[in-house]
Specification:
The chain has 165 residues and is mostly beta strands. It has one domain: Jelly Rolls, CATH 2.60.120. Helix content is 13%, strand content 44%. Strands 1-2-5-12-7-10 form a six-stranded antiparallel sheet, with no helix packed on it. It has a five-stranded antiparallel sheet with strand order 9-8-11-6-13, with no helix packed on it. A two-stranded antiparallel sheet has the order 3-4. A hairpin with a 3-residue loop joins strand 8 and strand 9. The two termini are 25 Å apart.
């Protein structure tokens, strides 16, 4: 789509390993030392980071999880559906967007350790969002779901897990 390509070029986005496109737009210059962090971290981290994230409607963001909380902010385009799995509470779904009559919200924080994936509700459109991570994002803290392992833990979600892994 011409509009999607225009946004990718204007914001200087590049392909993201989970799907879609991104560009880091902020990385705090201040550092949290490892000894001040929970033991799930393997080293120092920036206070916070943020990115632009664009997901075309014909793409998905694959199930993954982080060791930090991640706040999603809706900017433009079609509704983004976040599919989330909490190890204790199970599945929940969030609709990011500006249509308040459809119970869409503009911002949502996914807690560290929750598995999450995303898709655009209108497959002919896109969703442009921002993601803020604190403590700051590091690929050391990023983990893709293994389809068989996640399906064993949540057999009732097997079809969803297959679609997003």
């Amino acid at each position: 789509m011409k509009k999607i390509q225009s946004i990718i070029e204007r914001l200087q986005l590049e392909k993201h390993p989970e799907g879609g496109y991104f560009r880091e737009i902020y990385r705090s210059s201040e550092i949290l030392k490892q000894q001040a962090l929970d033991n799930r971290y393997s080293g120092d981290r920036n206070y916070s980071t943020s990115i632009y994230y664009l997901l075309p409607g014909n793409s998905i963001s694959r199930f993954h999880r982080l060791k930090s909380d991640e706040t999603w902010h809706f900017y433009l385009g079609s509704t983004l559906i976040l599919h989330c799995i909490n190890e204790l509470k199970g599945y929940y779904r969030i609709k990011l967007g500006g249509n308040f009559s459809e119970n869409e919200i503009l911002q949502f924080t996914i807690h560290y350790g929750d598995w999450f994936a995303a898709e655009v509700s209108d497959k002919k459109s896109y969703s442009l969002t921002g993601c803020t991570v604190a403590p700051g994002f590091s690929f050391q803290d990023f983990e893709f779901a293994v389809q068989d392992e996640l399906s064993l833990k949540f057999p009732e979600l097997k079809d969803l897990i297959i679609k997003f892994t």
